[in-house]
Amino acid sequence: MVGMSGQSDDGNNGGGGARVHRDTTQVDMPMAPPRPAGPPAPPPRPAPRPAPGSVTGPVPLPADGRSDASPLVRTVERHLDEILAAVPQPDAIELAVLDAQGLLCAEDVVSQRALPAFDQAALDGYAARAEDVAPASVREPVALSVVGESVAGMAAPSSIGPGLALKVAAGAMLPAGADVVVPAVWTDQGAVQVAVQAGPPAGSYVRRAGDDVAPGDSAVQVGTPIGPAQISLLAAVGRERVLVRPRPRVVVLSAGTELVDVAATPAPGQAVDVNSYALAAAARDAGADAYRSGILPADRRRMGEVLESQLLRSDLVLVSGTFASGGFDVVQEALAELGPMRFRQVAMHPGPAQGFGRLGRDQVPVICVPGEPVAALVSFEVFVRPAIRLMLGKRQLFRRTVQAIAGQELLSPLGYRQYLHGTVMRHPDGGYVVEPVGEATDALLARMARANCLIVIDEDVTEVAAGGLVTVMPLLLGG
């Protein structure tokens, strides 16, 4: 899923058409080189069955491991497809070119000007005729009379004839009759007469009018990511404003009566609201304009008012919380009053409890993720980040992945796609090696903060032996 390339990851999403299930762990980077043959790995052990009443992870699925075998549990791909099929793409807006940086161009910008606007010197030297300087060499330099000087910004027309040269600066207007610029370092840099020691062919070090962009040419095309080079070109063709795909407005809310703001000292049984900060930061990193609205009020009426008001200002609403299964809690009831909201178990760990709906007058997408901070950020990577990139018009929705060698044995629950935080690094022999971060005694937030990747283990795999290959999703900032 992580963009490990630059602008090649961006562009139009490719339009409409039927959506197909996508593999969010698809390998789209070269695999690590083959490892030397070793003893065969032992066959995978069946997943241990927890004792009754001791289940702390995801509920085991049927023995075939297919989440579709249970009507109450859906695959990661099916839940992701439902979200991507429903998120809107905001209408294009016009921005000043500097404010458009990082966005996708939404129009074909056609130049009304020629770039360059006139024939000009590409570097400091002497404008001359190629046939005059062709025989020049260090042993037998060609002498030319210098008839003047042209500097950048000088608009007065000039011309030269046989045996003449004009001293020019980079960007200066080229005199009529000249078809080459001899670099100053190839001459004795004379002021009245110049000795040319090498003769470049005709057209060398000359920029002709319209060589870069001619009137009527497309300067910046639809779907082009606007970076410093595009801003330079837009300014050169005289565009102060440009039509772009805007950043989606994402509002982040946290639900839970146990939550207190970061400035408060939590009492026993209370927890600091870290999710609204973490998810807002993740949304900004994905390219959205994210607004942290904070903790939802506990009062039922006020909660509904806050949710409804946020739907009016948002392109997407993100809510984290611990939502009841098998029945409505107060947050689910408040959301249900604003439109159809579906909560489901998704075959992933951590964070199998997921919700999605389109609510309010404008059918704004609302994504609900688990309240546990690690599960919330994993859910963001899997479901929310691709939705934001789709709304931005990006072509590469998912982070790119690599294949890495597992540094130690990895276990995973059967039937669930496991996402483990880890550290991935280059192996001295080539390829990548990855290890999960920390020990079981580490605090989860501290462990997550040290990670630079997610290790992704598919639903039908319960064990990856040390030295085996595993899919890794590098978590590059802004990627």
TrEMBL record:
Keyword Metal-binding listed: yes
Gene Ontology CC: cytosol
UniProt feature coiled coil, ranges: none
Any one GO molecular-function label of the UniProt entry: metal ion binding
Name recorded for this polypeptide: Molybdopterin molybdenumtransferase
Residues annotated as domain MoaB/Mog: 251-390
Region annotation Disordered: where it falls in the sequence: 1-69
Primary enzyme class: transferase
Pathway the protein acts in: Cofactor biosynthesis; molybdopterin biosynthesis
Purpose of the protein: Catalyzes the insertion of molybdate into adenylated molybdopterin with the concomitant release of AMP.
GO biological process terms held by the UniProt record: Mo-molybdopterin cofactor biosynthetic process
Obligatory cofactor(s): Mg(2+)
Keyword vocabulary terms for this entry: Magnesium, Metal-binding, Molybdenum, Molybdenum cofactor biosynthesis, Transferase
Compositionally biased residues, Pro residues: 31-51
Record-listed E.C. numbers: 2.10.1.1
Domain of life of the native organism: Bacteria
Keyword Transferase attributed: yes
Organism: Blastococcus xanthinilyticus
UniProt cross-references to Gene3D superfamilies, sorted A to Z: MoaB/Mog-like domain (3.40.980.10), MoeA, C-terminal, domain IV (2.40.340.10), Molybdopterin biosynthesis moea protein, domain 2 (3.90.105.10), Molybdopterin biosynthesis moea protein, domain 3 (2.170.190.11)
